[in-house]
Amino acid sequence: MTCPLPERIPIEGFTYRDMKIDKVPATPEFKPRDPSLVPAKNRSVVINPGATCMPLGAMWAIMGLHRAIPFVQGAQGCTTYVRYTFARIFKEPGSIATASFHEDAAVFGGRKNVIHGVRNLVVRYWPDVVGIVTTCSSEIIGDDMNSFLKATKKKLAEEIGEERAAAVEIVLVNTPSFAGSQVEGYNRAARSFVGSLAEKTGDASDKVNIIPGMTYPGDIREIKHILKEMGIEATVLFDISETLDAPLHPPKSLPYYPEGGTTVEEIRGMGDAAATFTIQKEAGSAGAVLLEKKFGVKAFNGPMPVGVANTDMFVTALAGITGREIPKTLIDERGRFVDAMADTLHYTMMCRAAIFGDPDIALAMTRFACELGMTPVAVMTGSPSVTFEEDVEAILEEYRHLFTVEPKIFNKGDIFEFEEYLRGCNRLDLVIGHSKGADIAAECGVPLIRVGFPVYDRFGYQKKAIVGYRGGELLLYEIVNALMSHQYPIDRVQQ
Ligand code: SF4
């Protein structure tokens, strides 16, 4: 008699590699998908979204301030999900407070929650800054946050005294998630903090402001390296390199706040700076533009300095505005990068790459792929961007004569649509994008080069730089090594 039970799992278990997933319809009612519903614009649902929640971007920004805690005016899930995402990416603890909305807040509004919540936060943790981040629910029920904020400050002053209450900066960032993605959340945080805190004293300084956008600690350190080589002082607004990558010294007790992060004083001084450089145009330019309008601080918004041309543009603009020379050390770094490109061109040229991510990273990677002689078969962003298509098209136009196939642009598409398109491509050599592309790359049988937000399935990614000449060179090696491992037998690669 045959056993009706499935084969038993061996006592030693089995690996993922041994698992086979049958790709057969689960039910007889299964119908193949309607091809007209593959484009995201023909559907009223998003499948596998390419962007996430707007408050996340604002929280990312606030985590880069000194002694700051974001306070989320919404439900616990809006906070927990973000803390979980940050923990996965940065492997660091991060404090985010919540107004903890329940049914009563949905009916009566979140006034009580914010007043008591911020009071509790202040008397327990004595932060320098509380960044209040609204959410979908708070925005939909129409919380009058400006009046709530006044009431919160009044309550604090009554309880802890005017002076101590005034020492805590409370800044509101409105982030209705239905109106944009995490990129816009960061952008709004830049505008809110600059708008609330920056001042012009009249003492012009030759410092520059850097708004790094949703780049990683490794990238921020590379930007600081470039500035240091050029002898330029800078205020980095939202400096997560010092808070979300803080050192762990063998402790007797762990300090509650990391040592670093942008201070309130530094933000105040941003109105006196010589210029503001936004590393990612879509994530931060609102702050730079406000500084320009209010205080006449010149704004340079992107492109993200990835690859040779974009880094040249960044360094040249820095030199132009500050009058500093571009030092030999940077020229040599550029030379090494260009040398590496020449050494590896026979691996990268005519490769077909699919690129996706937030608008700035997708744009920067498109240009870099073109510089390497690749054809970007598809370029996708899931974050809404007014200029994305136009910006990608401008890059493609410069290199179109080298392409082996006409690229396709997906603006505000979802990852499902992007993947379906890639499956139909004749040939694909690599995917460049964040961790959500791991399945696409596996399905297409090509390597994934991880860049952008979020990268949660690799250790140490947040420490690496992809910006600047040195970052670009390392990124190039990662691309080439992935292609070599994937495309060539081990005994055929150049030794
Ligand atoms: S999308 Fe809205 S409801 Fe969902 S986590 Fe973000 S703020 Fe909260």
Mean pLDDT: 92
Please summarize the sheet with the most strands. Answer: 5 strands, parallel
Q: Fill in the CATH topology of the largest domain.
A: Rossmann fold
Strand order of the largest sheet: 11-10-9-12-13
**Beta-strand content:** 5-15%
Subunit arrangement of the protein: single chain
Q: Portion of residues in helices? A: 40-55%
Main structural class: alpha/beta
Structural shape: globular
| Amino- and carboxy-terminal Cα gap | 58 Å
Number of domains: 3
Q: Do you know the CATH architecture of the largest domain?
A: 3-Layer(aba) Sandwich
Task: Kindly provide the name of the CATH class of the largest domain.
Answer: Alpha Beta
Q: By CATH's scheme, which homologous superfamily of the largest domain applies?
A: Nitrogenase molybdenum iron protein domain
Q: Please state the CA-atom Rg, rounded to the nearest Å.
A: 24 Å
Task: Report the count of strand segments.
Answer: 13
* Hetero ligands: iron/sulfur cluster
Can you describe this structure?
This protein has 495 residues and is an alpha/beta fold. The chain has 3 domains: 54-189, Rossmann fold; 208-245 and 255-325, Nitrogenase molybdenum iron protein domain (Rossmann fold, 3-Layer(aba) Sandwich), CATH 3.40.50.1980; 329-487, Nitrogenase molybdenum iron protein domain (Rossmann fold), CATH 3.40.50.1980. 43% of the residues lie in helices and 12% in strands. It has 18 helices and 13 strands. It has helices at 54-62, 76-90, 103-108, 111-125, 136-141, 145-160, 162-166, 182-197, 217-230, 264-268, 285-295, 308-322, 328-348, 359-371, 388-399, 415-423, 438-444, 468-487; strands at 68-73, 97-98, 129-134, 169-173, 208-211, 234-236, 275-278, 298-301, 352-356, 375-381, 408-411, 430-433, 448-450. It has a 5-stranded parallel β-sheet, with helices on both faces. Strands 2-1-3-4 form a 4-stranded parallel β-sheet, with helices on both faces. A 4-stranded parallel β-sheet has the order 6-5-7-8, with helices on both faces. Strand 9, helix 14 (359-371) and strand 10 (375-381) form a beta-alpha-beta unit. 48% of the residues are buried. The site of iron/sulfur cluster has 9 residues, from helix 2.
